[in-house]
Design goal:
It is found in: Membrane. Pfam families: Aa_trans (PF01490). This is Transmembrane amino acid transporter protein-domain-containing protein. By secondary structure, this protein is mainly α. The chain has two domains: 38 residues, no CATH class; 356 residues, Amino acid/polyamine transporter I (Up-down Bundle). It contains 15 helices and two strands. Strands 1-2 form a two-stranded antiparallel sheet. The longest helix has 43 residues. The two termini are 37 Å apart.
Length: 439
């Protein structure tokens, strides 16, 4: 989490660095913002958001198109436009706190709907920051078992999940600040871009062998589950408040959001369209499992595996820091040794929990759909609109904007309710089909 210092605009002289950065102009009608004297540029914010958004969610987009047909491409475009709008309107909501900027979804929920709203917001955020590491453990275990097939390293997904849990858990227990792992974003972006290029090129090479694959124009029944996967890929909203707070010139926030998601849209559509065009309804999730086997595919798998493993601590540490702050687990309160033991015990328990879930539900695609449906749909589509209405007013919006807002809410609720239902049904079906653990 980003540490921020609350400051009132009038407290600074006209020649201060904060005033030079146009602190809060056009954003904060109450006259309160954070100290942006050490803030970064808009390009830096754009880069960070692209790094955080270009994640493993894109690997399921061709499968999402296969579930909804070519019509699901329109869903991807619509979801990204709505996500962009949600990021833009989240900013004015941040500056409607009582004498302070609201620095997290939980604070926005508290301000908008009281304690119940705050805890509901925290609940959905927790689904993302704990559910995604579960997804990452499942993916990394499957990848390594696949790479080591036919060798002594073919341990089974059960054992590989435990191995990766230990690899992730050791740094997770000892890391105390997000600054220690900030470099991961750059590696993640490069890894995902290289993976996209490899997958698109290999699918193009394989196209002559896939001419008989079937394609659907629209599959209405598949739209809810497709929406779930799309919502997962569209959501880096959990970090919007932190990234906006790190900017020296907050007036540039809308341009940063639009630039980021426009960039990501290019990669998303390139991967989704090429994957479905070549493999049709047979495309797999993750999509690189559809392309021909060989060194290039192995490189893509290795890159994604390294990316998700080094990314896990980012989400887990951000969750731990927030909870430890809520529980007041500090050196000042407990002393250095006792504070470390309490923190280590808490984080070990979290690690055991996500490992157990990953072992019990080892289905990458279905887990992605479930997390996207239940949590990301709320965070990406529903909550930003509700915060915007509650904190900036409802009657002061024109009819066109309100109609657009209602469309986003419908989109979000359909993805959340029907997507969650479909995801759970598919999970039950998998277990009923007699799934056995690879031990």
């Amino acid at each position: 989490m980003t540490d921020v210092k609350i400051a009132k605009i009038e407290d600074f002289s006209s020649n201060s660095s904060i005033c030079d950065s146009e602190l809060g102009k056009g954003v904060n009608d109450n006259g309160y913002d954070i100290d942006r004297s050490n803030g970064g540029s808009s390009w830096f914010a754009y880069y960070n958001l692209v790094c955080l958004t270009l994640g493993t969610g894109m690997l399921g987009l061709p499968s999402a198109v296969s579930q909804g047909g070519w019509g699901a491409v329109a869903l991807i475009i619509g979801a990204l436009v709505m996500s962009t709008y949600g990021g833009v309107i989240l900013q004015p909501a941040m500056y409607r706190g009582k004498n302070r900027r609201l620095n997290s979804y939980k604070e926005l929920g508290n301000e908008a709907f009281g304690k119940i709203g705050g805890w509901l917001s925290f609940f959905f955020i927790t689904w993302v920051v704990l559910g995604t590491p579960v997804l990452y453990l499942v993916l990394s275990a499957q990848n390594l078992d696949q790479l080591c097939k036919g060798t002594a390293g073919e341990l089974g997904t059960f054992k590989w999940t435990i191995v990766w849990a230990v690899v992730v858990g050791i740094p997770y227990i000892f890391i105390k600040t997000m600054n220690n792992i900030a470099w991961v974003s750059a590696f993640g972006m490069v890894a995902m871009i290289v993976t996209i290029i490899i997958t698109v090129v290999l699918s193009g090479v394989d196209y002559p062998n896939q001419l008989n694959n079937h394609h659907d124009n629209v599959v209405w029944d598949g739209f809810p589950i497709a929406l779930s996967t799309i919502a997962f890929s569209a959501g880096s909203n959990t970090v919007y408040t932190s990234v906006e707070g790190s900017m020296k010139t907050p007036k540039q926030w809308p341009k940063v959001i639009i630039g980021c998601l426009s960039t990501c849209s290019i990669f998303y559509l390139m991967l989704a369209i090429s994957g479905y065009y070549v493999y049709g309804i047979n495309v797999l999730n993750p999509v690189y499992n559809s392309v021909p086997d060989g060194p290039a595919r192995s490189v893509a798998i290795v890159l994604v595996t390294i990316n998700v493993i080094v990314s896990c601590p980012i989400l887990l540490v951000s969750f731990a820091l927030e909870v430890e702050d809520m529980l007041n687990i500090t050196v000042e309160r407990f002393g250095k040794k006792k504070e470390f033991l309490i923190r280590a015990a808490f984080r070990t328990a979290v690690m055991v929990f996500i490992t157990a879930v990953g072992i019990l539900i080892p289905f990458f695609g279905l887990l992605m759909s479930l997390i996207g449906a239940f949590a990301n749909s709320s965070i990406v589509f529903i909550l930003p609109v509700l915060f915007y209405w509650r904190l900036t007013g409802f009657r002061n919006k024109n009819i066109i904007e309100l109609a657009w807002n209602f469309l986003i809410l419908i989109f979000g609720f359909v993805a959340m309710i029907f997507g969650t239902w479909a995801s759970i049904e598919d999970l039950i079906k998998e277990f009923k089909n007699g799934y056995t653990y690879s031990i």
